[in-house]
Amino acid sequence: MNQTSRDGFTSSFGVLVATLGSAVGLGNIWKFPSLTGANGGAGFLLVYLLATLLVGLPVMIVETMLGRAARANAVSAFDRVAPRRQWWWKSIGWMGFAAALLILAFYSEVAGWVYAYVFKAMAGQIATTDRQVAGAVFAELVANPLSSLLWQWVVLAVTGSIIMFGVARGIEAVTRRLMPLLFILLLVLCARSLTLPGASAGLSFLFSPDLAKITPAVVLTALGLAFFKLSIGMGCMLTYGSYFRDNQNIPATATRVMFADLSVSLLAGMAIFPAVFAFGFEPAAGPSLVFMTIPAVFTAMPGGTLFMTLFFILTAIASVGAMLSLLEVPVAILSERFGLGRKRASLTTIAAVAALGVPAALSSSLTSDLKVLAMNPFDLFDFLSSNVLLPLGGIMVCLFVGWVYGLPEMARQLSNDGALRNQRLVSVVFLLVRFVAPLSIAAVLLHGLKLF
Ligand code: PHE
After folding, report:
1. For residue 100, how far is its CA from the centre of ligand 1 (angstroms)?
2. How far away, in angstroms, is 44 Cα from ligand 1 center?
3. Nearest protein Cα to ligand 1, atom 4
4. Strand partners, 372
5. Which of 50, 224, 339, 378 is the most buried (most CB within 10 A)?
6. Probe residue for ligand 1, chosen from 159, 163, 229 as the CB with the greatest number of ligand atoms within 8 Å
7. How confident is the model at residue 168 (pLDDT cuts 50, 70, 90)?
8. What is the mean pLDDT of residues 220-235?
9. Counting Cβ atoms within 10 Å, is residue 447 exposed (0-12), middle (13-18) or buried (19+)?
């Protein structure tokens, strides 16, 4: 592999936008609200915040660091940074490969729903505050095997054709301009949602925790969400880190991305939950929650159809940034390790996702009874990736950095060879990844999976 021919981000701002583009996605707008709703609200949010600060951020920092130090894909990176190139460290990369495909299989389906909703919004088919009507529209979409598959393929065709061209200028330029618009639209949506009669019940659902609702399974889900949100534990940040510039301040970039990402999720939550209670929706509705609530809020304001359409377009764009980073993990592995050329690596990855995506897309129709661990394929892929593979990858990254890579090398990397004065910060991150993060992830994982 030729170092100089590697693709990479060209500016500090580009790095920030791309990393933020990976973090912000359906996770904020779809997953965060549905999980918060299904797991009892504020208690879940509290655990999620703790998991993000104490585990997510440190893991994000060291994972990105490993990528930049190695300048290679998620598997080969460990050939370069692990002494004696032990195979078990490389398994972090292979697990990431598997996790990326599993996530893409269901993520592309949800993105497909978003694309479909752009057209439904335009046609005025979802302009309703009636939960029966809203529920029926969503149910009809997911229960139709053909349209589920077609929308997923549209999503794969769009993202696949972008990823083929490498670290894409086009999408970076598009995301950079349109993400702020999504943010503004969410603000407007919050303002409307919060002023609906009966909105305060939504706020207290979101912000006054009931500690009794925090079970081990809830904690595991919150931890899984923290990993999913920050795109960590599966080699994605490592791969992006490998495109970082040498003088990029990694801890500062990670911290900014984390806060920005968190604020998008909170805005989404504040747009959705007041409306859920105001219109009598079910907070625990699961994956359908956003698709019913968001249209209702827009319907309740002037210019609803236009803004609703815009909202789904922006969400579709946000999903593209995240999917590109997911695709980049297998694509980089395939092209660098197997010498597959960018195009063939991209096509192979897309084909694999399309195949895995079939059972996921049909989970509300033909494969709904195909249950493993009492979950349909869609839920199973989500569970296996977010709640098992990502935390497992996170533990291994922590063990590697905390016990093998070591503080001196980490301090050198994170200070950009002494150019940044951040020793104290680095020591704190080191303690977190050496002890706190791996122990707490292990405890949560074992307990949440009912293994002890
Ligand atoms: N962080 C993305 C989101 O919230 C999803 C993602 C997970 C992207 C893992 C890359 C890796 O939508």
Report:
1. 9
2. 19
3. 27
4. 375
5. 224
6. 229
7. low
8. 97
9. middle
Q: Is the pLDDT of residue 429 over 70?
A: yes
What are phi and psi for residue 126, nearest 5 degrees?
A: -115, 20
Distance from the alpha carbon of residue 12 to the mean position of ligand 1, in angstroms: 21
Provide the pLDDT for residue 165: 73
- For the residues of 307-345, what is the DSSP string, one character each? HHHHHHHHHHHHHHHHHHHHHHHHHHHHHHHS--THHHH
In this prediction, residue 2 carries a pLDDT of 41
Q: Which of 378, 328, 346 is CA-nearest to residue 113? A: 378
Mutational pocket test of ligand 1: of 34, 108, 325, the residue with most ligand atoms within 8 Å of the beta carbon: 325
**Range 39-60 average pLDDT:** 97
Nearby residues of 53 by Cβ (< 8 Å), 6 or more positions away:
none
| Amino acid, single-letter form, for residue 13 | F
Burial (CB count within 10 angstroms: exposed 0-12, middle 13-18, buried 19+), residue 246: exposed
Tell me which residue has tokens 């060209």.
Answer: 10
C-alpha 22 – ligand 1 centre gap (Å): 6
Q: Which atom of ligand 1 is nearest to the CA of 322?
A: 8
Q: How far is CA 283 from CA 37, 198, 207, 230, in A?
A: 5, 14, 14, 24
pLDDT band at 450 (very low <50, low <70, confident <90, very high): confident
Model pTM above 0.90: yes
Distance CA 73, CA 18 (A): 17
Q: Which residues line ligand 1 (CB under 6 A)?
A: 22-23, 25-28, 103, 228-229, 231, 234, 236, 322, 325-326
Percent of the chain predicted with pLDDT > 70: 97
Tokens (6 digits) for 414? 């994170």
pLDDT of 4 reads 47
DSSP secondary structure code for residue 370 in this structure:
-
pLDDT of residue 1: 42
Ligand 1: which residue has its CA nearest to atom 9? Answer: 231
DSSP letter, residue 243: T
Taking the C-alpha atoms of residue 94 and residue 333, their distance in angstroms, rounded to an integer, is 9
> Could you tell me the pLDDT band of residue 171, with boundaries at 50, 70 and 90?
low
The amino acid that residue 325 corresponds to is S
Task: Supply 264's token pair.
Answer: 């998008």
Q: CB under 8 Å to 235, separation ≥6 — which residues? A: 63, 73, 74, 75, 77, 92, 93, 96, 97, 100, 329, 393
